Each structure stands twice: as C-alpha cells, then as structure tokens.
C-alpha cells in the first residue's frame, strides 16, 4: 500500500553512465529518531538507499534534456512500498527523492525543481567535480529544508488539501449514514414490536369479547335453570293447596 511520506533526498552526478552520489539526506531516519514514526518508514534499519537509487538512475537515466540551468527529464520508478522520482540538468547533475507510493509524483517533481535551484545556488560549481558523498554535510540543511517543507502535503499542494477535506466530508457522511441506518433499524424494530403488541391486544380483545359472550350465556342458562326450579317448587307447593280448595 505505501504511504504519503518522504523518505530521503539525494544529489548525483551522472558520469560516464555511472551515478555518483554527491549528497544525501535520510529524512525518514531522522523522523524516526525523533519519535515521529516508531520505526515504520524504514523498518528501523538504515538501508543503503543511495546505492539503490544510483542503480535505478543508471538503468533508466533522465532523458529529453534541452534547456540549460533547469532540471527535467523526470522519471518515476516504483517498488512495492516506495517510489523514486528523479531528474537531471544538461550538466548531468541529478536530484532524486524517495517517497511512499501514495505521495503525488507531481508534488515530488515540484520539490525537485525548487531543490535544484537552492542546491545549484550553493553547490553548483562543486557538483561538477565533487567526490562521492563529499557534499553530504555541506548540503544537509538544503536537502533537509526541502524534505521538511514537502513532507506536509497540506502546506505545499492545494489539491491534496482539497482531497483531504473531501475525505473528511466522506468520512463524516459515512458516519452519519451509518447512524441513520442504525436509527432506521431501531425504528423498524420498534415498529415491529408495536405491531406485535397491537396484534396481541387485538387477540386479547377478541378473547375478552368471546369470554364475555360465554359468561353471558352461562348466566342466562343459570337464570333459566333457577327460574324453572322455582316454578317447579311453586307448583309442588301450590298444587295440593289448589286441590284442597276445590274439594
């Protein structure tokens, strides 16, 4: 996946097909040493990144250079986790930067263009004849300033800032939608429970009505039974009296 962090910046001189490293600044190593990444950027190891980038440049050197005093012919070479962006001028001075895969290459090129001006202003004359790594200490601040400035995309790239805001809005919208869905599920659950209660109430009402009818019928039968019993008793009592009166 990679990230959007700057690993390091380097300066080379392409001499007879070989890339001679003049200066290098390990931004990721200093970032980790200050507690910024917890060993995640380089896996806690100081790898020989300068030699690796030199091979990349030698295998596919910058091309299409025409205007003196400017850097161009930019190339982007990617691995599983990193990418190397580099370019050179007509005097074979080559600048390179290693970044995470999510770092925009157009921003890295912008960084190299700005770094080229500062580097050449300070070390342009020395770069043509300097020995391997002889400018590392002298050019450290120049390389460091460029890495520090461009490591925060929000400060150097409006598009990245806008994309960041869009991502924030998307995240907020996704959260709101998730909450709405949860609320909808709760509402549906409450509605379902309400329907169940209504159904139970309807059943109870029907049973209550049926029970009332049954009780009324039982009461009527009991009344008729008692009435009949009383009538029989009256007949039994009154029949002898009536017969006696007739005699």
TrEMBL record:
Protein name as it appears in the record: Vesicle-associated membrane protein 7
Entry-linked CDD domains: R-SNARE
Positions of the V-SNARE coiled-coil homology domain: 158-218
Localization annotation: Endomembrane system
Any coiled-coil regions, as ranges: 180-207
Main location: membrane
Organism of provenance: Fistulifera solaris
Keyword Transmembrane helix: yes
Domain of life per record: Eukaryota
Gene Ontology CC, one term: cytoplasm
Keyword line: Coiled coil, Membrane, Protein transport, Transmembrane, Transmembrane helix, Transport
Transmembrane segments: 222-242
